[in-house]
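Example record used in the benchmark description.
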Amino acid sequence: MFRPMKPRIAITVGPDEIAQGNMRLTYRSAVERAGGEPVLFWNVPRGEVGKALESFDGLLIPGGPDLDPETYGGRPHPNVKTAHPDRDALELEAARYAKRAGLPTLAICRGIQVVNVALGGTIFEDIDDQHERPDGPVLRHMQTPDFSRKETTHDVDLIAGSRIAAIAGASCIKTNSIHHQAVRRIAYGLDAAGRARDGIVEAVELRGDHPFFVGVQWHPEELVENDGPSRALFDAFVAAAARRQSGRSAAAAR
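Model output (structure tokens):
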């Protein structure tokens, strides 16, 4: 019996991480649950990332250590713990390619910061030190260790008419929160699609007709077992990748 191939989803990894056991397990499991085939993506020479991504149907940029402040014109900060520079370069190049090529992209936690920087935006080196909160609730964005990664600790208000609000089927969702950095100046071409009650940008989307280009500051991969909006987000992402796969297959068959 013929079984259609699953859409292949590239999940980025740093060269210093690849030897770790169960690398990106929660992300891979969430992609598989949604019907995709996760593939760890690393060790690609600079300048060749786009070519390497041509065989994939989707791109997932996951969480992890901080971007080097030099990538967005920032300054050193004692709370910044940077990733391997090759991971920064890989993901920034991948995000730019995905925008140009219409490659369905889901960016999570560090990932939302990567796509924002890749397209010309900036991030807070440290929220507690730099973000000026409006009058209202003071939120704790680094919920661990007091709460597990699978618990939700604050609300995110989704912008009416945004793609992510339509996917979630709600104007407000509860999320987990495991970050000390966040989007500062939003890149041109991106729209804020969700904010925490203290004003922090929690979701962005690419403006225009891109098939799927969404970034979220929380960790939906940790919530998919018990949270409908998190499952819906991965379902929508993998469905967009499947449509790209079908289109590529049809073009190859001509």
